[in-house]
Amino acid sequence: MAIEPPPSRWQLDLDQAAPQDDLVGIGADLEPGTLLMAYRAGLFPMGLGDNGTSPTGWWSPDPRGVLLPGNVRISRSLRKSLRAFEIRVDTAFSEVMAGCAEPSRQGSWITPAIRDAYQALFELGWAHSVEAWRGGELAGGLYGLALGGMFAGESMFHRVTDASKCALVALARLVFEDEDPDRLIDVQWLTPHLASLGVTQIARDDYLVRLRGSLPLPVPPAFER
Questions:
Q1: Does the pTM of the predicted model rise above 0.90?
Q2: What gap in Å lies between CA 184 and CA 150, rounded to an integer?
Q3: Cβ–Cβ under 8 Å, residues 145 and 154
Q4: β-pair partners for 177
Q5: pLDDT tens sequence across 180-199
Q6: pLDDT tens string 30-47
Q7: In whole angstroms, what is the distance from residue 48 CA to residue 27 CA?
């Protein structure tokens, strides 16, 4: 079972958020208690400086990119790719974060402070990685937080074609295994890449309703420790 950290000394919420304003706060810290409070309220951090450096911005996109039960799309070519990878959970969390943080990636925002913060959440049992392996080597993957029935996806990467897509499909299978309609995968913003896999977008108010319904659910068995 994940360990609940000390509560944050900050207060992060959406009380003052204006519709369609994605950035809703600046400052605070990246302590485990602050991060968990933020995600439970519908926010996540991303630095406002170059390449994600400080100050920390707190974001709640409106609309929000989500993957919902029953909406996963698997093309014929992707179905073939799924057979080529071995999926593992939490066996290479720091390596997945390093892959997502590679400086050569366009729009890189994962700083050493972010890596340290999510590593701490991993050690407490809240953060997880879903990994695609081939030939004994890490080919791609994703990481994020499992909070009840909601998985908050943070970033994904691939070194082999379709590896990150296969990791996302595997994540959906793990999160939606019990077919509970209240479960949710949050991907923050919709992209064409994610849309091809069935990700859609909903208004922030709708997202918050779904979030509140998902948090009381049990964590998927794959993410229990």
A1: yes
A2: 5
A3: yes
A4: none
A5: 999 999 999 999 999 999 99
A6: 999 999 999 999 999 999
A7: 10
Provide the pairing of β-strand 184-188 with 150-158: parallel
Are the CB atoms for 130 and 171 separated by under 8 Å? yes
Query: Does residue 221 have a pLDDT over 90?
Result: yes
Interval 170-187 mean pLDDT? 97
pLDDT for 215:
98
- Output the six-digit token pair for 91: 């066996």
Residue 9's contacts (CB-CB under 8 Å, 6 or more residues apart) are none
pLDDT at residue 108, rounded to an integer: 80
CB 88 within 8 A of CB 133: yes
In our burial notation (b when 16+ CB lie closer than 10 A, e otherwise), range 145-176 reads bbbbbbbbbbbbbbebebbbbbbbbbbbebbb
Structure tokens at 98: 């390093």
Q: How far is CA 224 from CA 9, 132, 218, in A?
A: 28, 19, 9
Write out the two tokens for 193.
Answer: 């890449």
Residue type, 106: Q
Question: Do the beta carbons of residue 126 and residue 38 sit within 8 Å?
Answer: no
Instruction: Give the span between the Cα atoms of 214 and 38, in whole angstroms.
Output: 15
